[in-house]
Amino acid sequence: MAKTLEFTINSPRQIKQGDTETTFTFICKSAGSAVELTHATNITAKIGNASGYLRSQPIAITSLVGLSQGWLNLQPMPDLISGLPAGDYQLEIWVVDQAGTSIYPSDEPLGFTITNNIESESGASITTIAFDDFVEAMNKAASTIAKGEKGDPGPTPDLSNYTTVTDLNNGLSTKVTDNKNGTIEVNGSSITPANDSKVLHSTITQLNSTDMNTVLTAGYYQSIGGTNGISGGDNWTIYQVIPLFSQNGVQLAYVTNNTISGIRCWNYTGGNLNFTSWVQFADDSKVAHLSGANNFDTVPTYGTNNKPFAINDNGATSARPTGQTAGYQYFDTSLNKPIWYTGKNWVDATGKTV
Which pLDDT tens digit goes with each residue over 151-181? Predict the structure, then answer.
C-alpha cells in the first residue's frame, strides 16, 4: 500500500535559519486514508538533502492528543536545523509500532526549504552625496574622455523585404485609441473592455472524498472516491468550499444525478479542525403539491396528527404538537381559537401565553 506524507493546507513549507518557533503540520496516509498514529511506540522526523541523510528529531506521542487522525506537528529544534545553510531539504516520518516500522512517504521524501535570515549576510553602508556635487563630478569625468576617430560608414541595409510604417498605416482598417480613462475608442465608438475579475474561470480539482476534510480553500472540487458522508450521493459529487472567516466556513455538495444536495460547516476549536454533520436540502419529493380538485387525500403527510405539511394542525390543548419551529400555527379546539408557537411557549393573537 502506498504511503503518503502531505503538508496540511495551513502548514508553512519553509523556515528561516535559526527559527525554532515555526511548526510544520503533516498528514500521514496509507492507500489514501489517514493512519492512526496514537498506537505508535516511536515517531521520528528525519531530514536530509541532495547529499543524503543529515539529522533526526523525535516527535512525542503525547503531542498527537487533540489532532485529527493522521495529523502530527513538527517544531524544528536547534539540534535539527542549527547551522544548516539555506537551501532545499527532504523529510521523512518514521513510525514504529507493534507491526514494525512504517516510513512516510513510501516514494520521494517530502520537500521543504530553509531560507536565509537577515544576519546571513553582512550589509555595507552607502555613502551619500549631494545632487549638485554628483552632477559636477559626472561633468568633470565626461570632459576627460577623449574622442576617437570617426569610423567608416557601414553598408546600407536592404529594406526591400521589410514592411514600412506607411505600409502598416495603409493596411490597418481599424483605428483604436486609448482614452486614458479605462475605455478605448474603436473607429469612433467608446468601449469599456472587460477585466479578468469579471471573467468566470472554471477550474475543478478532483479529490478523494476524505481530502475534503483538509481542503478549505475557496473553489469547486470533484469527489472521485465516495461522497464523504453525503447520504444517497454518487462518486461524482461536486463540492463548493466557501471560507467565511479565518477559522470557519461552509461546504456545499451538489450530486450529479440531481437526487441529493447538502451543506456542512467547519471551524477550528482549540486548534482542532471540526466538521458538522451534512444537512440535506429538501428536494421535490418533500414538497406538498395541491391538485386542481384540492383533494388533500393525495398530499404527502408530514405534519403531526397525520396532516399535510401545508395545512396547520388542530386539536385539543392536550394534543398540541411538540418539536415545531417558531411561528407554527395550531387551532386549539379546547380554547376554540388559533394559537402560535414561539419556539418556547404557545401564545394567542394578543401575545398572551396560553
Answer: 888 888 777 777 676 667 665 666 778 887 7
Q: Is pLDDT larger for residue 222 or for residue 109?
A: 109
User: What does residue 16 show for φ and ψ, rounded to 5 degrees?
Assistant: -85, 155
Cis peptide before 78 (omega within 30 of 0): no
Cα-based distances in Å from 196 to 116, 193, 199, 220, 240? 36, 10, 5, 19, 21
- The tally of CA atoms less than 13 A away on the side-chain side of residue 189 is 5
DSSP calls for 186-231: ETTEEE-PPPGGGSPP--EEEE-GGGGGT--SSEEEEESS--TT-T
User: How many Å is the maximal CA-CA distance in the chain?
Assistant: 120
What kind and span of H or E run contains 168? helix 165-171
Q: What is the C-alpha to C-alpha distance for residues 267 and 245, in angstroms, rounded to an integer?
A: 9
Tally Cβ neighbours within 10 Å of residue 74: 21
**Residue 69's pLDDT is what?**
94
Three-state DSSP at 103 gives: strand
Task: Round the average pLDDT of the chain to a whole number and report it.
Answer: 82
Count the helix, strand and coil residues of the chain and give each as a percent rounded to the nearest 5: 15, 35, 50
Instruction: Measure the CA–CA gap between 114 and 107, rounded to whole angstroms.
Output: 22
- Residues 6 or more apart whose Cβ sits within 8 Å of residue 78: 20
In tens, the pLDDT along 80-120 reads 988 899 999 999 999 999 989 999 999 999 999 999 988 87
Which three cell numbers mark 338? 388559533
Confirm if 29 and 77 have CB atoms less than 8 A apart: no
Name residue 66's amino acid: G
8-state DSSP, 166: H
